[in-house]
Specification:
Elements (H helix, E strand, L loop, with lengths): L1 H4 L8 H79 L2 H12 L6 H16 L4 E5 L5 E4 L11 H13 L3 E3 L13 E10 L2 E11 L4 H6 L9 E7 L3 E4 L15 E2 L6 H6 L4 E6 L5 E8 L5 E8 H25 L4 H34 L1 E7 L4 E4 L1 H7 L5 E3 H7 L2 H17 L3 E8 L6 E14 L4 E13 L1 H21 L10 H18 L3 E8 L2 H8 L1 H18 L6 E6 L2 E7 L3 H16 L17 E8 L9 H17 L5 E3 H10 L1
Length: 679
């Protein structure tokens, strides 16, 4: 029974084994599937974040280039306007030109040397300063003279008349802004400057200086196109009904002052600029294309600058390429989860290479713009203290490579500028401020000094709640050697004109104007420091009889020889010999009392007498040319109620006493007072 009831142990069936294995493997599969899913989600999220960051980085690069180019271009337009106002101011402040105009008008506008001088000066402005034409108008706006025959009929348009009236009222040059339509005088886009001409306080007229913007301003704007076919630099101006473009657009766009855009078109970058919007914005241009535009206002002008580039070209094309790569990466991750890490590295490397290629392309665009404008782009990294230069910047600094250490850069600066520039550089880094500087370098190739102008600002990135400065500066360098040379030549020319105004043409001594300015200056200085101030008044004895005897030509030669002897005898700093008028001379002696002034007078007396210039008609023994001198000295700190005029009056009184005493002698004012008291 027992044996019959015992059942043998049955082997486990395969189905049961599979079922049991599945029971413990199911949670493992779920865990693996969950881990793979999480890895895929993390990978997708990482890819998406990387795409966003690179797209944002690309946008900042485009925005940074727009800002840099716009800032420099705006400054160039401002300097262009200031330069022509300064040239007009030079003409307004030219007393020789005012004298020539006054003499010409006084002569009834008869031909002569004054008209020749006026004509030559007007033609010089056309030839050397790139003006299209220059006209001379009277105070009522009537044409007097010019480099060309006037092309308008009747009265000047109202804007020119208003500018003429303002220039005469303020005695300052006034710019006539460009405009279009029937109001214009010329058939080309022109901007003009009204330079007032005064004879002291009397207005004589204005010089109307006309510039063709097609040959001066427009090329300045067209040279900045960022290396892009669609990039444009536009100057915008407000009108009564809307806005117009000052400069012509590129192919397909309106010409200067033609298309009047209404203010209701708020999607236009020009309208947005006029309404006060600044910085980089997304807008729609005149071709109804989306653009990325930098808006800024040109200081001291009715202009706004719009620097715009096609948004599809600047942003959309890279974004489409990034989106395609993103889709390929997502598909690769979904199909090949096991190769997730490898595929991610490969695609990341490929994306970085393409971005690098795109960045190089944009850098070539920027390099083209830099070479067109003579600029170079650089970045200074604070950590390694190293400059990274664009090709144009390296060429400007004479460097063979695109990098330069701080020490190597400092070695390029000439010693006279090095201390100032290094201090400015250090202060800018310490305060986190922008750098604006001009300095000279010695070019390492030809060892010539070159002037460099630098603009640099801190690179800024957007944080969560604020702007965070990056430890580097971005900037541009420009070779301004030719501009500096022009400025030096203008300064020398201006100084030459000023010296000619203050110099006696016959004797080459200082004239009455220079003497009056020096007396005023030395009187105030002596008053502050408590020093004496002395004046010698002198006269050539019997000079009228000398002219009658030897003739006026010999008389002029006598004046020159006496003036040279006086000038050679006066050597101390601050002392001045001047021709007072006719045969009279004056000597200004700072820090000299009357005793010291008489010692100097005796020296001058001997110097002239020893010239030995024959004078048969003189009463002075020896029969040679001689002088009589009167000396006076005051202490301005105590005698301030008398003033400098009293000093000359006393010296003149002493001169009269020296002549009365027999000539060829010097006399002090105190001696004349004692003599008068004794009498």
């Amino acid at each position: 029974m027992a044996s019959s009831q015992a059942q043998p142990e049955q082997p486990t069936q395969p189905a049961q084994i599979k079922k049991e294995r599945f029971k413990w493997r199911t949670p493992l599969y779920v865990l693996i599937l969950l881990l793979i899913t999480l890895a895929m989600v993390a990978a997708l999220w990482g890819i998406y974040r990387s795409y966003q960051e690179r797209a944002q980085l690309h946008f900042h690069q485009v925005e940074s280039r727009l800002r840099l180019v716009s800032d420099v271009q705006t400054q160039n337009v401002v300097k262009w306007r200031k330069q022509h106002l300064a040239e007009a101011a030079t003409l307004s402040n030219d007393p020789l030109y005012a004298q020539a105009l006054q003499q010409w008008l006084a002569s009834g506008k008869a031909p002569g040397q004054w008209q020749s001088m006026l004509t030559e000066r007007l033609h010089n402005f056309v030839h050397y300063n790139e003006y299209t034409m220059v006209h001379l108008l009277d105070t009522q706006g009537r044409w007097l003279h010019g480099t060309t025959t006037p092309s308008w009929e009747g009265d000047l348009p109202q804007p020119e008349l208003l500018a003429l009236a303002q220039a005469l009222e303020t005695a300052l040059p006034v710019m006539v802004e460009p405009r279009g339509g029937k109001d214009t005088v010329f058939a080309f886009p022109a901007i003009a400057v009204m330079a007032p001409i005064y004879d002291e306080d009397t207005p004589l007229g204005v010089v109307w200086m006309v510039l063709d913007m097609r040959t001066t301003l427009f090329p300045l704007l067209q040279s900045w196109q960022l290396g892009s076919e669609n990039a444009e630099s536009i100057l915008t101006q407000r009108t009564a009904t809307g806005i117009v473009n000052v400069n012509p657009m590129r192919s397909g766009g309106p010409d200067s002052f033609e298309a009047n855009l209404p203010m209701s078109r708020t999607i236009s970058p020009g309208v947005q600029a006029v309404q006060g919007v600044r910085g980089v914005v997304h807008s729609v241009n005149y071709r109804d294309e989306k653009v990325l535009a930098m808006l800024s206002q040109v200081e001291q002008s009715p202009w706004w600058l719009v620097l715009q580039v096609n948004e599809d070209e600047a942003l959309s094309h890279p974004q489409r390429r990034e989106g395609l790569m993103l889709g390929l990466q997502i598909g690769a991750v979904l199909l090949l989860a096991a190769w997730l890490a490898g595929l991610w590295q490969w695609f990341a490397w490929r994306k970085e290479r393409q971005l690098k290629h795109k960045l190089e392309q944009h850098m070539r665009w920027l390099g083209t713009a830099q070479r067109a404008a003579g600029l170079g782009y650089f970045a200074y990294h604070l950590g390694p203290q190293k400059f990274y230069l664009s090709e144009s910047a390296a060429e400007i600094l004479g460097q063979p490579s695109g990098s330069l250490s701080l020490k190597e850069w400092a070695a390029l600066i000439v010693p006279a500028d090095k201390k100032r520039i290094l201090r400015l550089h250090s202060e800018s880094i310490g305060k986190g401020e922008a750098v604006r500087s001009e300095y000279r370098i010695r070019h390492p190739h030809h060892q010539q000094e070159r002037w460099i102008q630098v603009w640099a600002e801190w690179d800024i990135q957007e944080g969560d709640n604020s702007l965070i400065p990056v430890q580097r500066m971005l900037g541009i360098a420009q070779d301004i050697t030719e501009r500096k040379q022009i400025e030096t030549d203008l300064a020398n020319y201006r100084q030459l004109l000023e010296n000619q105004v203050r110099q006696d043409p016959l004797t080459a001594l200082a004239n009455r104007l220079a003497l009056d300015e020096a007396v005023t200056r030395q009187w105030q200085r002596a008053k502050r420091r408590g020093h004496y101030l002395a004046v010698l008044m002198m006269d050539i004895d019997h000079f009228k009889t000398y002219n009658d005897t030897y003739g006026h030509l010999q008389g002029d030669e006598c004046l020159r020889q006496v003036a040279q002897a006086l000038a050679n005898s006066i050597q101390r700093e601050g002392e001045l010999v001047a021709r007072y008028g006719g045969e009279e001379f004056a000597v200004l002696l700072p820090h000299a009392d009357e005793t010291q002034a008489l010692e100097c007078a005796q020296m001058l007396l001997n110097a002239v007498y020893h010239l030995g210039i024959a004078h048969s008609a003189t009463s002075v023994p020896g029969g040679v040319v001689s002088i009589s001198i009167g000396a006076a000295s005051l202490l301005p700190a105590l005698d301030q109620d008398l003033g400098a005029a009293a000093l000359f009056a006393r010296a003149d009184q002493a001169l009269y006493a020296a002549k009365e005493g027999g000539r060829n002698r010097c006399c002090g004012y105190s001696q004349t007072v004692k003599t008068a008291d004794s009498e």
